[in-house]
Every structure is written in C-alpha cells, then in structure tokens.
Amino acid sequence: MNENRTVKPNPIRDSANKLKLSIFGVNGTGGSFTHHPDRFSGDWDAITRLARRADEIGIEGFVSAARWIAFGGDNHYSGDYHETFAWAGAIAAITEKISIISTFQMGLISPAFVAKAEATVDIISNGRAGLNLVCGWYPPEFDLFGLELREHADRYDYSDSWMEVFDKLWSSDESFALKNEHFDLAHAMSQPRPLQSRPVLMNAGGSPRGREFAGRHADVAFTIPDDPDPKAVKARVEEYREEARQKFGKEIQIWLSAYVVQKDTTEEAEAYALDYIVTQGDDRAVRDMIEANIPNSKTMPDDAIKEMSYEFKAGYGGYPLVGSSDDIARRMIELSEAGVDGLMLIWLDYEGGLEKFAAEVLPQLEKAGLRAPVR
Ligand SMILES: Cc1cc2nc3c(=O)[nH]c(=O)nc-3n(C[C@H](O)[C@H](O)[C@H](O)COP(=O)(O)O)c2cc1C
C-alpha cells in the first residue's frame, strides 16, 4: 500500500550532527510554569510557525508533552497540550525534515492504538515519526481513564510487556497471537503498515528501573544531572551509556533537557530568569506537580524533588542554559565534550528564543564542528 512513499531520514536517529537538538512541549503551552507574559501561548498558529522555522533551520526534533489533567486546577494552561498523535499528523503535513515525537503514557494508551496512530504519522511524514515513552505517574490521569496506577516496579513490568506487543504489531506483516504477563492477543495485526522498521524511541525514566527500560527499548535516554558541572555530567552520561552497553549490548544516545534564557549579556539573562522563575513563577502548579511526583515517580530522592521547584518553573526540571550567546554556546560545547549527544530545548518565548538562538548560538556550534550549517 505504501510502496510509492520514499522513506526520509529520521534526524534524531540519522543526523550526522554531533550535538543534536530538539524542542520540547511544542504541542501546547511549552515547558515553563510562570505567569510571565512572555510564556508561549500554545496557540495553533504559533505552533505551526515554530514547527516550520525549526524544520527550516535543521533542528532535529519537535517533541510533544503528554498531559490529560492540568496541574494547578481546572482550566490551568498546563492542561492545554494538544493530543500528541493528532498533533503529530498535522505537524508531519507541514514540515519536511524534522523528527516528530509523540509523547504518551503506556499505562493509559493501548499498544494497538499507538501502533496504528504512529504508523499514520509515519506515512504522513515519510518516516519521520517517533515516540517518547512515558509509563505514567500522575494519579488524576489514571482516574480519568478508569485505570489503575500500578506500583513503580510493576509499572515497568507492564511497560516491558506493552513494548513486546507494540514491537510485534509494528513489525509484523501478518496477524499473530501473543501472550505475555499482561496481554493475551489472538489475530493481532496493525494496518496501515508503517514505513520505518521502527520509530525513533525516547525515554526519560530516571529511576534505576527507568534507566534499564530506556537501555532495553529506546534509542535516546534522558538524564537529569544532579550537578550542572560538565565533569559531573560526563560521569553521569558515561554511567548511562555503559549500562546500556553492558546489559543490552547497545549504543544509545544520551540527551539532557535544558531551558534556554539567552539575552545580550549574562546579567540581563540572569535577571530575566529570576523574574519569570521566582517573581512571577507559578508556584501553585509546581507544588501540585511535585506533590504528585514524590509518591509516584522515583527519578530522584524525595528531598531532591522538593528542591526542584525552581527548575520545574524554569523549564520542566531541565538543565540551565542561561546567559549571553557566548555563555550558552560555550556551555553547549562543554556538554558535547562531556558526551551529551543531544539537548531538548525549552524557551519561555519559543519563537523569539529560537530566532535569537539561530542567529547567535547555532553559528558558534557550527564553527566548533558540532553541527553542519544548513544550506
Ligand atoms: C524531558 C522530560 C519529559 C517528560 N515528559 C513527560 C510528559 O510529557 N508526560 C508525563 O507524564 N511525564 C513526562 N516525563 C516524566 C518521565 O518520562 C518519567 O515517567 C518520570 O520521570 C518517572 O519515571 P521514573 O520514576 O522511572 O524516573 C518527562 C520527563 C522528562 C525528563
């Protein structure tokens, strides 16, 4: 059925750039929790302008966030993310090169639905589809679906079973039966048939069990370093990479998520960051998020999560890239030297932020040999 489609490279997997770049939270209101007026609107016209521009300047990935129930109460902007497969189909149709990543919770959505929805995105995009695999950890979302939020280890056991079903649905041209600990399928098959032999897979689980899951299944694993010093980042990245090698004989990419506050001077950037994060920060939404995270996510010790309020408000708990263009380029080069393969970026104002980044930071990364200039 799809014999006339030409499969394109999927840049998160195939780009030769040493430091790959994606943009996160772009199916809605971005990744920062603040009342500052520069926060991304999540308006559909703004999303499509951003997608086209990111595509044009060679950013590797456009990554959605999965959220079914807001933090911070009814009608809070954090609930306004668009559904991530419908969104991906639309982004696929208006872009040419960029990887399009649908984030979703395996505990909420069946592998049969994801195999079909993702194959649809794969066909529309000519092979640029990918998934960010999240187990799910936020109880109100499980209530919404009438499903149980499993205990942490059990969640990953379920997700391993989920992946077995998904991989078989994706790869099999004939119907099959499959029985594992959590699924019992007869005459299973997914059509239309996708183009890629497997979509690009990302995972951001930080617990020991999450890291193992990422090593087993994903192409890209995210880590949240507890110390921003590039030497500490290097040790963390090596640990992650080595774990995937030793346990699964696999090379995986290790990425960080990061928020960017780029101004003409270091002082200006720091003052702007302080204003949107502390003075105008959305403390209530982040308090909700942290309170739900502590019992339900094991990414880091409970005390460390409590201390993360600043980073969550700044940009979804990401690594700080705050300063002038020279400061930011220098730090990105250091992170690359520390072994980081990619950065998933968050701005407060995505459109203005990406433009300034493209004009002043990208050329420095190109000069350092980390990225090829885009013709
Ligand atoms: C960069 C990044 C993006 C994430 N995006 C989402 C998301 O969109 N929706 C969600 O429910 N969880 C999201 N998460 C949560 C994680 O994927 C993961 O489920 C969580 O950290 C708990 O896993 P763990 O207990 O194994 O560490 C994200 C985490 C990171 C670091």
Question: Topology, please?
Answer:
Elements: H1 11-14, E1 20-24, H2 44-56, E2 61-63, H3 84-94, E3 99-105, H4 111-124, E4 129-134, H5 139-145, H6 152-171, E5 176-179, E6 184-188, E7 200-203, H7 208-217, E8 220-222, H8 230-248, E9 253-262, H9 266-279, H10 283-296, H11 302-306, H12 309-315, E10 319-323, H13 325-337, E11 342-346, H14 350-360, H15 362-367
Parallel strand pairs: 1-2, 1-11, 2-3, 3-4, 4-7, 7-8, 8-9, 9-10, 9-11
Antiparallel strand pairs: 5-6
The site of flavin mononucleotide has 22 residues, from β3 and α7.
Bound molecules: flavin mononucleotide
Q: What about the largest sheet?
A: 8 strands, parallel, barrel
Q: Uncertain segments of ≥5 residues (pLDDT<50)? A: none
Order of helices and strands: HEHEHEHEHHEEEHEHEHHHHEHEHH
CATH architecture classification: Alpha-Beta Barrel
Strand order of the largest sheet: 1-2-3-4-7-8-9-11
Report how far apart the termini are: 34 Å
Q: What's the number of domains?
A: 1
Task: Quote the average pLDDT.
Answer: 95
